[in-house]
Amino acid sequence: MAKLIDLKDITKIYQVGTVEVPALRGITLSIDVNEYVSIMGPSGSGKSTLMNILGCLDTPTEGTYQFKDREIGGLDDNALADIRNREIGFVFQTFNLLPRATALHNVELPLIYKGTPARERRQAAREALESVGLAERAHHRPNELSGGQRQRVAIARALVNRPSVILADEPTGNLDSKTGEEIMEIFEDIHSSGNTIILVTHEEYIAHHTQRSIRLLDGKVAVDEPQRNQKVREESSRESPFPAS
Q1: 108-165 pLDDT, tens digit each
Q2: Which letter does DSSP use for residue 168 in this model?
Q3: How far is residue 164's CA from residue 87's CA, in Å, rounded to a whole number?
Q4: Cα–Cα–Cα angle for 38, 13, 19, nearest 5°?
Q5: What Cα–Cα distance (Å) separates residue 90 from each residue in 57, 236, 238?
Q6: Is 26 left (phi over 0), alpha (psi -120 to 50) or beta?
Q7: Alpha-carbon distance 21 to 205, whole Å?
Q8: CA-wise closest residue to 186 among 207, 155, 153
Q9: Count of CB atoms within 10 A of residue 22's CB?
Q10: Please, which of 32, 139, 159, 226 could form a disulfide with 1 given CB 3.0 to 4.6 Å?
């Protein structure tokens, strides 16, 4: 399988006053196209820092990061922003939706930044909302939606550009367990369609949905292994509504 992400000896050191605080200490790992990976670890283990580097929101202090065989380390802010917009779909715990914008407009945003013509981006946004079961809520604002519906909007926004990878940071953290399971079923459908997903979570039952578990401790990879308790999907052969990137 083709390699999507390749990290070698990644370190990240933050300067706090006169003190250097290491967040990552020599992370080496790779992620293939269409992998479904969970990143776990206690508070302070470095998982959020790693997610920021994977998402081109931050750069490592040392080491190399190749994304689709392209070295990320030497890129300027504009080039990093372009990769984030075209290649990476983000899903956050707090949804990060514009409160005064409709669901449709929230989903359109990445395409607006990309310069996609209005008619084309509205059609793509409608299709993305339909794929997560929210076509009838396209003109509702976030305060008119439930938590699960808001997260579905956020997922549609992440998908609308057909990115190479979805990065999900505690995507069920603000949801009850039943709604969380519904959101995880959406991620499973997205993965089944051929998309790569990297999910940060502290919940074991959430990680069990993934194929592979990477566990960090003190800024290092402590465990990197197949997810032994991965949920078996009875409908794995059915057609998915989500387009592969």
Answers
A1: 999 998 899 999 999 999 999 999 999 999 999 999 999 999 999 999 999 999 999 9
A2: E
A3: 5
A4: 135
A5: 11, 24, 26
A6: left
A7: 32
A8: 155
A9: 15
A10: 32
* Residues in Cβ contact with 62 at an 8 Å cutoff, skipping those fewer than 6 apart: 9, 10, 11
Looking up tokens 């409160």 gives 99
Structure tokens at 153: 């909007």
Residues 6+ apart with CB under 8 A from 24: 10, 11, 12, 46, 49, 50, 53, 60, 219, 220
Find out whether 19 and 10 touch, Cβ atoms under 8 Å.
Answer: no
Q: Which residue has the tokens 């949920």?
A: 231
> What is the per-residue DSSP string for 199-239?
EE-S-HHHHTTSSEEEEEETTEEEEEEE-TTPPPPTTTTSP
The amino acid at residue 47 is K
C-alpha 160/C-alpha 16 separation (Å) is 38
Print burial letters for 101-140: b (CB count within 10 Å at least 16), e (below 16): ebbbbbbbbbbeeeebeeeebbebbbbbbebbebeebbeb
Task: Find where tokens 């369609």 sit.
Answer: 193
CA distance 56 to 50: 10
pTM for the full predicted model: 0.89
Report the b/e string of 182-208 with b at 16+ CB within 10 A: bbbebbbbbbbbebbbbbbbeeeebbb
Burial 72-91 (b: 16+ CB within 10 A, else e): beebeeeebeebbbebbbbb
